[in-house]
Amino acid sequence: GLEETVCTQRLQENLDDPSRADIYDPEAGRISTLNSLNLPILRRLRLGAARVFLHRNAMVLPHWNMNAHSLMYVTGGRLWVEVVKSNGEAAFKGEVRQGQLLLVPQGFAVIKRSESEGCEYIAFRTNDNAVVNMLTGRLSAMAGLPVGLVANGFRVSLEEAREIKYNRQETMLAAANPSAQGTAEA
Amino acid sequence: QAPDECRLDQLNAIEPTNRVQSEAGLIEYWDPRDPQLQCAGVAMLRVTIRQNGLYLPTYSNGPIMAFVVQGQGVTGAVTSGCPETYQESQEFGQEQQDLRLKDMHQKVRQMRKGDVLVFTAGTAHWYHNDGNSPLVFVALVDVSNYGNQLDRILRTFHLAGSNPQLPERSLFAGFETEILAQSFNIRMETAEKLKNLDDSRGNIVNIPQKLQFVRPPTRGTTTEQREQYPGPWGEYDEEEYN
Question: How many helices and strands (H and E) does chain B possess?
Fold first, then answer.
C-alpha cells in the first residue's frame, strides 16, 4: 500500500507565489511560511521555512525564534541585520548580501531592514512548527505586558510606556520611514 | 547526552553556589557543572523576590518548571500571538468621542505557596511579589529538552533590566538606538531608555508604589480562610457567589 500513501505524499510547495503569502503589507512586503501544517512530511523532518520579500527600506520587526534556529540565505538584494545574544551584546551587526548565509540562533533577538533595492531571502528553520515572538507591534510581548510593568521596567513615564506598547500597530512587517524618527505618534 | 555525563559514583546533596543580587531580590544558581545536574540535563535556580519586588520579563532556552516554596504573588506569561484579554474599562476623552482603553495586556495569574508553574522555552514571563513576605520559588530549566536547540547551558534573555554583576543587559541594549526607534515608532530618547544602559537595579526591581495592572478579584483573602471551607471534592465553598 505504500504506493498510495508514503510514495504519493506531498514533497513540495512553492513559496514564491505572491497570492500564497501568509503575512502581507503592500508597503513593506510579504512572508510565506512552511510548516508541518501545510506540508505534513515536515513533522517527521522537524524542519520548516519562511520565504520573505521585503520592499525597499522595509523592516522585519524585532523578534526572537522561540523553538528553532533560523538559517537565512539571501537570494536577492541586501539586508541590514542586527542580532543580539542573551547577555544583551550584539552577536552580529551588519549587511547580508545576495548569496550569503546568516544563522539566527534560537532565542537571539533580531531586527532586519532591507536596503534601497529591497531584499528577498529564504529562512530555513529547525522546527516543523517554528514560532516567532515579536518584541514590538500589535501582537508583541511588549504589547502583552501591563503598562505599569513597562514603565517600571524601563524607568519611563506611563505615557512613554504606552508609546512603547502601542505606537507600532503592524504585526511583523513594517515600512521603515527614516523621516519618522523623533516624531513618534502617541 | 555525552557518554561521560552520567558517571555518578557518588551522589551528594547540593546547595546553590552562585548568587546574583538585585535591587529587590536574589537569584541563586546551582553549579551547572555539577555531575548530577549534567547527568539530568537540567539547570536549577532559586529566586527570592522581596515585598513589592518585580522580576522583569525574561525567557530562557529550555522549558521551566517552578515550585513556589513561600509567599504569594502574580505572574504573567506573554505568549506569541495571544490577544491582550485583560482590559481596563474604556475611558472617554474630552470630546466624549475619543474612546480608548486605558491599558490591556495578556492574562496574569495568582501564584502562592505550593503552586507549580510551567513555561515553554522562549516564552517571556515575569513575577511580582504583592504579598507581605518574601516570594521564594525554586525552578528547573530542562536544558536537554527538545525545545532547547542551543547547547546545554542555561541562557536567560532579558526583555528589561540589566545586571552589572554578570554582566547582563537587556536585549534592547544590543540594538542601535536608531533602528530601535524605527521599529517601535518612538522617539530616540525613549528608544535610548529602552536599552536600560544606565540601570544598575538588576533583574528584580523595587516598585515604589504598588504595581497597577488589570486583574480580576481573588477569592478569599488568605490561604487559611480558604482552607476553612473545603467543598465536597476539596474545592472551596462558593456559596457567596452566584
Answer: 4, 16
3-class secondary structure, B156: strand
* Cα R_g (chain B), whole angstroms: 21
Q: Does A181 touch chain B (CB under 8 A)?
A: yes
Q: Does A85 touch chain B (CB under 8 A)?
A: yes
pLDDT digits (tens, 9 = 90+) for A152-171: 999 999 999 999 999 999 99
The whole-angstrom separation of Cα B18 and Cα A176 is 43
What is the structure's pLDDT at B90? 67
- In the sheet with B116-119, reading across from the earlier edge strand, the strands are B18-22, B25-29, B43-49, B135-141, B64-70, B116-119
Mutation target for A interface from B183, B195, B215: give the one with most A CBs within 10 A. B183
The residue with cell 500597530 is A169
- A-B CB pairs within 8 A amount to 216
At B52 the pLDDT is 95
Q: A180 vs B157, B184, B206, CA distance in Å?
A: 29, 11, 35
What pLDDT is attached to residue A180?
A: 46
The one-letter amino acid code at B160 reads A
Cα dihedral B110, B113, B115, B119, rounded to 10, equals 70
> Alpha helix locations (H) across B94-210?
177-184, 188-194
From the CB of residue A12, how many other CB atoms can be counted at a distance below 10 Å?
6
The model's pLDDT over B82-137, given as tens digits with 9 standing for 90+, comes to: 888 888 866 655 555 555 558 889 999 999 999 999 999 999 999 999 999 999 99
ipTM of the complex: 0.83
How near does any CA of chain A get to the CA of B138, in Å?
21
Query: What are the cell numbers at A161?
Result: 510606556
Which residue positions in chain B have pLDDT lower than 70?
1-5, 89-101, 219-242
Cis amide bond preceding B35, omega within 30: no
